[in-house]
Amino acid sequence: MPGFTHSRMDRRTAIKWLAAATASIALADLRLLARPAEGSALGYGMNPDMSRIYHPGELWPLTFTSEQRAAVVALCDLIIPAEGESPSASAVGVADFIDEWISAPYDDARSGGPGRSDFVKDRTLILEGLVWLDGKAAELQGRLFAGLTVAAQTEICDEICYLPRAKPECERAATFFARFRDLAAGGFYTSPEGRKDLKYVGNVPLAQFDGPPPEVLRQAGLA
């Protein structure tokens, strides 16, 4: 797998492939956010009104402090920076998405019960990872991660960007980076801007459909 220091175009292309494989999973998990947890006596109210736009924090309290949010924004934009006509990850609200994700109020998950525990696992992992980033930045440069140059941020992330090659003492941080990258890619490439960046043409009415191109049929062994 290419290192984190490869060109932004190469990384962005790789992240697009990653997003294509993981975005549908992220969306399936997000559907859970609209349902009450099983076994909860009080529940979490009615399903959201899908005809309106909810702002971050309206459905439940968010988690990130201002310092944590700054680190999240910086890391989001390091992974998916603005490029050409495509905006950066933070510009389309990926930091809000991650904050909503780890703040999901599911009692079963938080208590380690039989319900889904993805949210609470990610909450612990993400918060620990942000502490690691700021601690590493302070150790190397005497300031928080968000206050570093892109080059200095990249140098830190190079230590944790590929779990199989991470040093033993960095394995937990590398696990954090891998999960954060998945969430950032899922959040970005399921946004309208991200779908445009992928050149996704689904959900668009067509006057006619001529079928798959011949080269695609040949690749699939159907022509």
| Unreliable sequence segments | 5-9, 23-42, 109-113
Helix content: 40-55%
- SSE ordering: HHHHHHHHH
Q: How would you describe the oligomerization state of the chains in this entry?
A: single chain
Total number of distinct structural domains: 1
Secondary-structure-derived class: mainly alpha
Mean pLDDT: 80
Principal-axis shape: globular
Q: Per DSSP, what share of the residues sits in E-state strands of 2 or more residues?
A: under 5%
Distance separating the two termini: 32 Å
Number of strands: 0
Q: Main sheet, how many strands, which sense, barrel?
A: none
CA-based gyration radius: 19 Å
Helix count from the secondary structure assignment: 9
Give me some keywords for this one:
223 residues; mainly alpha; 0% strand
Structure, explained:
- This protein has 223 residues and is mainly α.
- The protein has one domain (8-44, 62-201).
- The protein is built from 9 helices and no strands.
- α1 (8-30) crosses α7.
- It is globular.
- Mean pLDDT is 80; it is low at 5-9, 23-42 and 109-113.
Summarize the structure.
The chain is an all-alpha fold and 223 residues long. It has helices at residues 8-30, 66-79, 94-102, 107-111, 118-141, 150-157, 171-189, 192-197, 214-219. Helix 3 (94-102) packs across helix 7.
Please write out the topology:
Blueprint: H1 8-30, H2 66-79, H3 94-102, H4 107-111, H5 118-141, H6 150-157, H7 171-189, H8 192-197, H9 214-219
Helix pairs in contact: 1-7, 3-7, 5-7
